[in-house]
Amino acid sequence: MTTRTNRRRAIIDRRIQILLLVTALGLGAVFRLAYLASDPPWDFTWSQALFTDGARAIDGARSRIVFNTWILDPRSPVVLFYPLMNLLAFVIFKLAGVGLVQANLSGAIPALATLVLVYICMRKVGGEVAASLAVFNLGFCYVHIVYSRVPMVESLEILMLLACFLLLLGGLGRRFLCGLLMGLAALMVKMHALHFLPVATLFLWLERREDRSGGFLRSILAVAAGVVVAGLVWYLAVYRVNPSVVVKYFKSNIFVAQRGEYTNATLFDILTRRIGALVHLGSGRDGLFVKVPVLYALGAAGSLSVLSGFGNGKRETKPWERLALIWLVGIMASLSILSYRPLRYLALIIPSLALVATSFQTRLAEGKGLLAASKPRWFALGFSLWFAAVLIHFYQDIVFRLLRSG
């Protein structure tokens, strides 16, 4: 009788998981594909990027179809700045013609591929429940949906970074592919993807005792080799086309854009500014966490849950959970270095935040304790960081706005 009851319960649980997955994938696709010719929300962010940057990013692909040349204006060869995005748009334009819907598909297709990739790979490393919840978190994320409906390079970058995340959890061969994809994302999509290199390094170092793929040195060399190969591909396919323009672009975006933040500043000034930027990241004018309050709350709880397992010899957390937390901290730290942080940059926080939130939800769904059994000092550290993050953002985004409006 007990066996039959357990079997029936397993069937019901399986049906619930399938329903959750189909709902997340189905509605996620509808949210990203329905009425693609419509304008994005005009008040979504203070930046005009939703109405301008996407069209500029794929200008090379349109020029290739309409004028039979990738570079219409030699002074601004955008295809050299975003070659992979232009290649994707070119394929779409070639198959479906040039138009607003087709252009917006350049953002929607990578987003849909992201949902499918998350499910397939998270099922392997985290199980069925974690995979379904991860798709649900990402599929219903408002910020991800909005930036998926226009041809923004961040949509493709998120897909490639998630692939890097999942490849890093594999063996040496996959870690080489992780480095290759990371290098291509940084050089051919957007330089922000470079933040994943220190994330990968820290994760491999922390996992060195339990890693059976050849140890820390061989693993990090595999990642580095992938980055070098990506650099070689970029050099041959992009840099040699117009070296002076490419160098000027990288100088203006990496050095000149940050110069005002660091010129004549003392080390103390730099540190305090960067700490302040990290504390305020995603709040106030940027407004990321206000737009995804549920995901942020779950991510904060998940951070506490995963942090409580660090330093524990039994390792009650799984490798993907630890990597997700390191990635979340890494992307937030790297964005805090920038002096210019519009919402579309902050959208890169979404995938790691969704994965950390998934960790917390999975523990709830599987009936595990919300906190791993850990040494008191690790629990105290985790709780302090979690409480500080929640308190700071709650005060800035909720209390301050209420006081100001009142």
Structural account:
The protein is mainly alpha-helical. It has a domain at 244-406. 74% of the residues lie in helices and 0% in strands. It contains 20 helices and no strands. It has helices at residues 2-33, 49-57, 59-66, 78-81, 83-96, 100-126, 128-139, 142-148, 153-168, 172-188, 196-206, 215-237, 243-262, 267-280, 288-291, 293-307, 319-337, 343-346, 350-365, 376-405. α6 (100-126) runs antiparallel to α7 (128-139) and α11 runs antiparallel to α17.
Topology:
Blueprint: H1 2-33, H2 49-57, H3 59-66, H4 78-81, H5 83-96, H6 100-126, H7 128-139, H8 142-148, H9 153-168, H10 172-188, H11 196-206, H12 215-237, H13 243-262, H14 267-280, H15 288-291, H16 293-307, H17 319-337, H18 343-346, H19 350-365, H20 376-405
Main attributes of the structure:
406 residues, 74% helix, 0% strand, single chain
Main beta sheet strand tally, sense and closure: none
Q: Could you give the count of β-strands?
A: 0
* Series of H and E elements: HHHHHHHHHHHHHHHHHHHH
Number of helices: 20
Residue share in helix: over 70%
End-to-end distance: 62 Å
Structural class: mainly alpha
Nearest-integer average pLDDT: 81
> How would you sum up the global shape?
globular
Unreliable runs, pLDDT <50, ≥5 residues?
none
